[in-house]
């Protein structure tokens, strides 16, 4: 997710992103929009919701972390 990054994910992660967001481009757009729209310090996360099996983008403030939520497993994060 950087200008010189390694490109789109492959394998299971790519399949789950497509199933959850429709495409990698749509995931990237949502992740970016949440990060840009976040006010103050915090984090933007790609998490797996184990109750639905879907990936989600969410934000937390300050030291917030999805590890405190029972059904959310972090996949990647961005410090904002």
UniProtKB/TrEMBL annotation:
InterPro entries: Mn/Fe_SOD_C, SOD_C_sf. Residues 9-80 form the Manganese/iron superoxide dismutase C-terminal domain. One of its GO terms (molecular function) is superoxide dismutase activity. This is Superoxide dismutase B. It comes from Trypanosoma lewisi. The lineage of its organism: Eukaryota, Discoba, Euglenozoa, Kinetoplastea, Metakinetoplastina. The gene is SODB.
């Amino acid at each position: 997710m950087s200008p010189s990054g390694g490109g789109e994910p492959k394998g299971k992660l790519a399949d789950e992103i497509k199933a959850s967001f429709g495409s990698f481009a749509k995931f990237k757009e949502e992740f970016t929009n949440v990060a840009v729209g976040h006010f103050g310090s915090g984090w933007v996360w790609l998490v797996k919701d184990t109750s639905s099996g879907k990936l989600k983008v969410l934000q937390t403030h300050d030291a917030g972390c999805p590890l405190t939520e029972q059904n959310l497993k972090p996949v990647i994060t961005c410090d904002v």
